[in-house]
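Standup notes
- DV: blocked on the single-chain target, sequence here:
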Amino acid sequence: MTIDGRIRFNRRGILAVVLAGLAVTGCGKSADENRDMVVAATVDGQVEKPNVKLGFIKLTDMAPLAIAKEKGFFAEEGLNVTLEPQANWKVLLDGVIGGQLDGAHMLAGQPLAATIGYGTKADLIAPLSLDLNGNAITLSNRVWNEIKPTLPKDGGKITHPISAAALKPVVAKFQQQGKPFNMGMVFPVSTHNYELRYWLAAGGLKPGFYTEGDVSGTVGADVKLSVTPPPQMPATLEAGTIEGYCVGEPWNQAAVFKKIGVPVITDDEIWNDNPEKVLGLRKDFAEKYPATTVAMIRAIIKAQQWLDADGGANRAEAVEILSRPNYVGADVEVIAASMTGRFTFEPGDTREAEGFNIFFDKFAGYPYYSDAIWYLTQMRRWGQIADDKPDQWYFDTAKAVYRPDLYLAAASKLVDAGVIPSASVPETDGYRGEQGGFIDGITYDGKRPNEYLTKFKIGLKNGQRVTASGVTGG
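- DV (later): unblocked, structure below
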């Protein structure tokens, strides 16, 4: 069945979709021969490449990879997986592109940016989403102490979510003193960059635009954003280089424990149940090793289910695993502060946060086209995509990178085996419905990307471009 000319996925039609999506060419085989090979490999589970190396950054949302290894889910699928921490997101990306890594715990924007040639050019895919939510924005103590008295309270506690509008007087004071107001994020195409920009712009502060060939993105900025690797965020804040940052856990809670900063908003308050990391692979890896790819996905889905099972009953064990030096390497107490259903904003202000990390529930693993398109709209909004693109370009780009066919190949076998419930696999055309839950009250429809871009007060409009001197056109 199709909707608006696009494939609609359902469990009854999964096999046909898998065959169409996974058929590979080359090696002297006809398309039919390759298709038969893929069917045999995916059904029989005979992996072509049993030894696999995956990269990750030391963040709690790499948990599905650690759990898949430590609980034996990779081994159950015939895989011997090495997990290797990477210094930063660029090193990780280069490792996947160069073949030193077979895949990675990757920022959702990285395979999209590589595919369109922003920063680097490579054909990468995202066949699985690793999680929902998981980030926060932290401010330095001195900035927090300035804005705290101005914030409304409810029952003696600060009312959440906190708007970035509270920062306006502080930013103005910095400008009067001739000093930049600097904040950190982890990578130019990271969720953290777009979430931080979204929050600032929703509060009336300009986070700056990118020009072609520019990775700083500070043209016309009220608040200047720079890149800092996640584990270095607390030290950079403590040194006074930045006044705040957006990062994943445990590096917001680390600021609380060190008493050097205060988280002011979690990303689910910026965009409720937002997609975060993905499993990133080279397209040619999935084509050359289709059974290995689907086996990896199956193992990770099992780990995601384990992480969310029984209302988070396994989270304490997950925290212990993640605290090990070969994984996140932070103190158990710091990781547990956000991973076990609660989140501490400052000493004495710990709140329930059951949905802060979602790995399996709410179809967290399914790689929705509309999620990919949201990232692309933000790239265009801030000038990383220099010119207007028609809606069809967004649809085509999303389909080239996000691969629900591969996800469904894995999930359908797990459903058939009774490993995961059939209700955990969405029946969808690959798009979520219209979404709310954004801090600015704007709704998002992945099938209308250009219409969505017109809704923002701050951001590029149709016909506009960015030069070193500012925004032109439109």
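- Follow-up: The chain has two domains: 2-132+276-424, 135-274+468-473.
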